[in-house]
Structure formats: C-alpha cells, structure tokens
C-alpha cells in the first residue's frame, strides 16, 4: 500500500510540474497573444503616427543629459528590474545594439534605482539608459506592462510598438521603419503595415 501512495505522489508532482512549465511557456509568449489584434496594439502605448514626449531635462543612469535628437531612428524599450522577461531580453537587446549602428537604442528602466543599477551592471545593458523611479515616463508613454517597446523614426514619430520578448520582436519592430502609414477609419487611430 505504501508503494502505491509513493508512486501516486510522484506522479502527481510530475503532473504539477508539467502544468507549471506549460503555464510558464504560455505567459512567456503572452506578448504574441496579447498583441495579435490591431485593437490591442492601438490601445497600449502612444498611438502609431503620434510623436513621443520629449525627455527634456532628464538624465541617464550615469548622469549625462538625455539625447533629444539623435539624427537616426530610435528603438526605445521599457524594462523593470523585477520583471524576469525583461532580464531575459537583455542579451537579445545587446546583440541588436551591436548589430545595428544605424539605430539609437534607448532603455527606460522603471522602478527602484538600486535594483536598476544592479540589473544594468549584472548584464551590462547597452544603450542610453534612463531611470524612471516615479513612473512618470511610463505614464507619459501610456505603457502598462514591461517589456514594452516603440520604434521611432528620426522625428520621434511612433512607427511601431508592442511587447518585446526577444530578438523576433526586436526585428519585427525595426521592420516598421520601412513601412507606410495607413489611416484606420472610425477611431482616428493610425496603424502601420509592413510594406
């Protein structure tokens, strides 16, 4: 009888671990599911076709003044030190940073400054890093979840946006730079379709 209980307990733990792993995979790919419709893309973040707010008088994490106009497109991502998916994104972000010198890379790190510094130093996050301890930049850009990214043209106009979980999402956002704006009738929102 004891053997039956032992084997059934082991089997139950295997099932629980399998379910936990499956849920992790589903939540990991949440970005693809969440942004699968035009309505959800238009809802979060500044609308495609609109300019992002200027970051005047802001300082980077190392104390330099934020570059207001870079003369090239900007890939801007919002990360949080408490977000595991954000930490997992850093190697892909750094790879894209080294791969694309024609794009300015900007990281808005949201939350506690000590945790920001720890996250940035542990994985050597590349790009212009701007702290947002009071979430004001997050709110100005209407971002609700991290990691969330915008691709901006040279004038600071949003060309694409969405959750950014890895290299596929980074390349997908960059591809919007070569797209044409298409006005969507009805809600006044604009969307961008790859050419």
UniProtKB/TrEMBL annotation:
Annotated transmembrane regions: 6-27
Protein name, UniProt field: Thioredoxin domain-containing protein
One function term, GO molecular function aspect: oxidoreductase activity
Thioredoxin domain span: 46-179
Taxonomic lineage from the root: Bacteria, Bacillati, Bacillota, Bacilli, Bacillales
Alphabetized PROSITE patterns for the sequence: THIOREDOXIN_2 (PS51352)
Alphabetized InterPro entries for the sequence: AhpC/TSA (IPR000866), Thioredoxin-like_sf (IPR036249), Thioredoxin_domain (IPR013766)
UniProt keyword list: Disulfide bond, Membrane, Transmembrane, Transmembrane helix
Pfam families reported for this sequence: AhpC-TSA (PF00578)
Keyword Membrane: yes
Superkingdom of origin organism: Bacteria
């Amino acid at each position: 009888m004891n053997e039956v209980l032992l084997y059934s307990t082991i089997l139950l733990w295997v099932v629980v671990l399998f379910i936990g792993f499956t849920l992790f995979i589903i939540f990991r790919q949440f970005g693809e599911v969440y942004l699968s419709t035009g309505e959800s893309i238009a809802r979060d973040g500044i609308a495609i076709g609109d300019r992002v707010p200027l970051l005047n008088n802001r300082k980077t994490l190392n104390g330099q003044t934020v570059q207001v106009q870079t003369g090239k497109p900007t890939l801007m991502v919002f990360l949080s030190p408490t977000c595991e998916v954000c930490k997992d994104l850093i190697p892909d972000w750094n790879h894209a940073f080294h791969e694309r010198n024609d794009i300015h890379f900007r990281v808005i790190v949201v939350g506690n400054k000590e945790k920001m510094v720890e996250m940035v130093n542990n994985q050597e996050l590349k790009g212009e890093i701007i702290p947002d301890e009071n979430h004001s930049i997050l709110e100005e850009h209407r971002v609700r979840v991290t990691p969330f990214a915008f691709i901006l043209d040279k004038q600071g106009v949003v060309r694409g946006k969405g959750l950014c979980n890895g290299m596929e999402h980074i390349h997908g956002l960059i591809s919007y730079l070569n797209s044409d704006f298409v006005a969507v009738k009805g809600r006044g929102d604009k969307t961008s379709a790859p050419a």
